[in-house]
Design a protein that fits this description.
Blueprint (H helix, E strand, L loop, with lengths): L11 E4 L21 E5 L4 E8 L6 H19 L4 E8 L8 H9 L4 H24 L19
Parallel strand pairs: 3-4
Antiparallel strand pairs: 1-2, 2-3
Helix pairs in contact: 2-3
Length: 154
C-alpha cells in the first residue's frame, strides 16, 4: 500500500522539542519558521510539515485554520523548490482526537491498529495534562520538575 513515505530511502526527520537547536533545513529554504515536525527526502524533493495544536475541542477547526494561515507564506516560498505536504494534528485539551489526526498517521503509513492505539494514548495524555494543570490552578508556583503524567492522576 502506498503512503507519503513510499519510494524514498533517504528520509530525514527533525522535531521542535524543548532544549533543541532546531533549524529548518537550509537546503530546502532559509527561514526562522519551525513547524513541529519536518520530514524530507532530498532525492524525491519531497517535504512533509506537521503542526500540532491542542485547542479546546470546540475550537479545533479554528486552530487548524490558524496554523495553516501561519505557515502559508513558508509553503508558498518552498513550493517552487519541492513537493510539500502540510498537515495538522489536533488533540483537544479534554482528550478528543480529531479525525484529521487519524488521517495524518494513516498517510504516513501506520496500520489502522497502530493509529487507534496511538490516538488512544494521545487522548489520555492530553486529558491527564489538562487535569494536572487544573489541579495546579491555585498554585503560586509551577514545579517544572514534577511530571505532568503520573499515577497521581486518574
Amino acid at each position: 500500500m502506498s503512503h507519503l513515505l513510499s519510494n524514498g530511502n533517504d528520509w530525514k526527520l527533525i522535531v521542535d522539542l524543548p532544549d533543541t537547536n532546531y533549524i529548518f533545513p537550509p537546503e530546502i529554504y532559509s527561514t526562522n519558521e519551525r513547524p513541529d515536525i519536518c520530514i524530507w527526502s532530498a532525492k524525491l524533493k519531497k517535504l512533509l510539515l506537521i503542526e500540532l495544536t491542542c485547542p479546546a475541542e470546540e475550537g479545533i477547526e479554528a486552530a487548524r485554520i490558524r496554523k495553516q494561515s501561519r505557515y502559508l507564506p513558508l509553503i508558498e516560498n518552498i513550493s517552487n523548490t519541492s513537493l510539500w505536504t502540510f498537515m495538522t494534528v489536533e488533540v483537544g485539551v479534554r482528550g478528543f482526537v480529531a479525525s484529521s489526526t487519524h488521517q495524518v498517521f494513516l498517510k504516513l503509513g501506520l496500520q489502522r491498529k497502530q493509529v487507534s492505539a496511538l490516538c488512544n494514548k494521545l487522548s489520555t495524555t492530553a486529558a491527564k495534562c489538562s487535569y494536572a494543570i487544573y489541579l495546579a490552578a491555585n498554585s503560586k508556583f509551577w514545579d517544572e520538575n514534577r511530571p505532568l503524567l503520573s499515577s497521581d492522576y486518574p
